[in-house]
Amino acid sequence: MSAPKIETVSVRENITAKVLVKGEGRPVVFLHGAGGNNWDPYMEELSKHFKVYAPFIPGTGGSTGNEELQGWWELVLYYYELFDALGLESVDVIGHSFGGMLASELASTDPKRVKNLVLICPAGLWIDETPVLDVFSYVNTPEVLLEKMFVDVNSDAAKAFSTLPEDPEERIEAIVQNLTSLAEAGRYMWPIPDKGLSRRIHRLTANTCIIWGDKDAIIPVDYAYEFHRKIPGSRVTIIENTSHYPQAEKLEDVLNTTIDFLTSSVVAK
Amino acid sequence: MKFVYMNLMPYRDLPKNFEKDYESVFISIPRTLYDPEKGHEMYNDYIDQYELAIDLGFDAVGVNEHHSNGYGLMPSPNVMAATIARKVKDSEKACLVILGNSLALYNPPIRVAEELGMLDVITGGRLIAGFPVGTSMDTNYAYGISPAELRPRYYEAHDLIKKAWTTDEVFHFNGKFNQLRYVNVWPRTQQSPHPPIWIPGGAASLETWDWVAENDYQYSYLSFYGHKFAKDKFDKFWARRQEKGYDMNPYKAAFVQMICISETDAKAQEEYEEHINYFFEKSFHVSPRYAEAPGYRSARSVAHGMKSQYGSEGAGAQLRKGLSWQQLIDQGFIVAGSPASVREQLREAAKNLHVGNIIAMLNHGSMPQHLALKNIELMAKEVIPYLRDMWDDQWPVTNWPEVQLNSNNKETVK
């Protein structure tokens, strides 16, 4: 798997975005989770079918703007401007976890910017009876976090996720990237990742596919049905025996679901 | 040399196996473990301790702020400060240190300017205002401030409070986190332009130290590891001041020390060991879940292996694991023994750290009231008088209310 290109995009005079780009053809935006923008096999496989744009959230991966943008609303506007800069007027968006929260918001605030929407265990809604896990509080105990993220901690996917580079400097860099990303996502998720999406989600018009691990220990699968209820006409695919990173634990299933949805929904429109 | 009597106000009756049976002393400690009837006695005992310390001539008494915490029961330091403010006023020259208010947690932050203004006026200008950032547990977890916003909120609150204390006209404040159309803090502080400001903190960065120096504040290093662990921090602190061209006045810094005094060295161990163990075992039992939220400190300092002082299996627990009483003394976690031993250890510590303020912790963990009172009394009568003059022939007292200044001040001021 060859590395994606890192594109530097000037979004505003004082804000620069870094975007991982790979592939040809139809554009798809991938919005990463709180842990960071890690080019994984799912994204690699997607790039064989689409032109994948994976922007880093501001303040991570060399992108700036984390101090300038104030709050969730300004982050949403920033992403529209980034789409403009990339020439993406109306685009398909995939969001994972925090990225799913962001993708849902982008599709709700200005529905015409998002054509087809894939939500992989997104944050953004809140059910008092089944609260989203406070994932930040598990960062100091990586082995516990790993158990929450994966059904099988001994799987290759879990190992790929938890293995740090051997080179000491690369290792420090990886930890810094991860902590920075958590802090920057935390800016918008803290202390409860509900910033009012439920009051705006009725505006969403994108074709929507919701993908969830049946054993998600971070955002329980109940939320799959909550999203489904709030997005009429959406489809839900539950990936068995996976937790919060189904595209790593069951790559093929999630990939096929994604590709089927994105290719068929175009026909549908 | 100045001495501040400080009591964390621990819950002194946690279950024997607390650290095995419960997740954490901070954030998730079950509320049902708190017995308000015992709590009533504890609060009043602790207030008695403060009052005794004032009567016996400590230079100041200090209160602090913790939330959802079994070893620190002052969620509102200002309430406790108010409780002892009149005693401070009636004393010869005791002062009141708030160590302090975690500024990002006050909404709007002018609440701090107001309440500290009240306390300064009630005490007759005897207040010292401490402005800590606060621990990750207190700020991120108990009070829900996002780690990324904690420091920006802290600095903005600081600027607002400082401006409210130094501006005579009504002004507006259009901040990133606070918008106030009319800022006009009544009462004015008695001290002019405002009470001395201390910045209490754990592992501070060079940037923090520079900011402290630029503002002419005092830096209070707060840790439970004692004077030897602090050595390296203070070496860097003083080196930085020198590098930046600031003076080396020891009154620009304070450190916290746990102290146990009895008639003899042997008796000190006999009387205090169990309570010191209670303190270390239970107060360091902070679940790594809450020990430090991602973003509380810069990612780079975390990645380079700088440990937080909290966390059950974090630095604190690792450092003291398996240490005997004598090792705790030798490694400086505690200063303990007969008055003569304590004098010697403290003098050595203050000299090594080049520090003019000792924040003396004398009530530890499960200690019974009579022992705490004895510890305070021995400190006041058998230790403090012998160390009091330590820096006064060389340095003016700074960052204290006027009542505590020394002859060097009088020469320099007039």
TrEMBL record, chain A:
PANTHER family: HYDROLASE, PUTATIVE (AFU_ORTHOLOGUE AFUA_2G14860)-RELATED, MONOACYLGLYCEROL LIPASE
Superkingdom of origin: Bacteria
Any one GO molecular-function label of the UniProt entry: hydrolase activity
Name used for this protein in its record: Alpha/beta hydrolase
Record bears the keyword Hydrolase: yes
Domain AB hydrolase-1, first and last residues per copy: 27-250
SUPFAM superfamilies: alpha/beta-Hydrolases (SSF53474)
Organism: Peribacillus glennii
GO cellular component: a single term: membrane
Pfam families assigned to the protein according to its UniProt record, in alphabetical order: Abhydrolase_1 (PF00561)
Keywords, alphabetical: Hydrolase
UniProtKB/TrEMBL annotation, chain B:
Family matches, as Pfam families: Bac_luciferase
GO cellular component, as recorded: cytosol
Alphabetical UniProt keywords: Monooxygenase, Oxidoreductase
Domain Luciferase-like: 41-350
GO molecular-function term, one example from the UniProt record: oxidoreductase activity, acting on paired donors, with incorporation or reduction of molecular oxygen
InterPro entries, per the entry: Bact_Lucif_Oxidored (IPR050766), Luciferase-like_dom (IPR011251), Luciferase-like_sf (IPR036661)
Annotated protein name in UniProt: LLM class flavin-dependent oxidoreductase
